[in-house]
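Quarterly update from the structural biology core.
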Amino acid sequence: MTEKKTPIDWKAIRNDWEKSDWSIKRIAEWYQVSDTAIRKRAKAENWPSRPKSATAKVRANRAAGSEPVKMAGVDATDPDQIVGRGHNLIFRLLDELDAATTHQGELADLIEANEEDPRRKAAMLKAIDLPGRANVVKALATAFKTWNENKAPDGKKAKRQAAAEEVASGGKFAPRSGPRLAVNND
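Predicted structure, tokenized:
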């Protein structure tokens, strides 16, 4: 099956170009476009210059010599990028599952008619069978829950802890300072 090429969202890329502090390479990786293509488009359409915070941040990163860890085109140290990429993947898998479920009978008929190898035929029929699809839904639900736990608000216990720390930071419940000398020997 051939994959459809998704259109490039130039409006969003331009918005990130103008307003975000991401580097051009990071924007290119996020939108899965080459940074050269973004630069050419920016020059052709006379996009405004990048924000100073974006160029300063890139220079600071280069000076430090620390490149972000990249995994599958995503900065592995940025939870928001990981969660965003995970959501996209889950939604694509759900679309594929929907297509397989909707056309399950047709797929089974095609496999029966065109596949001659009995082992391969059995494996293909098992892949589109109900238990296989149910396991995929279960795995996707677990993955979706895991991705969303990152964005969940603090629970009651965490809120109480934060409130206690705030109260302890000042007032009569604050930790005592060290002893003071009563006599000045200067």
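Residues 69-151 form one domain.
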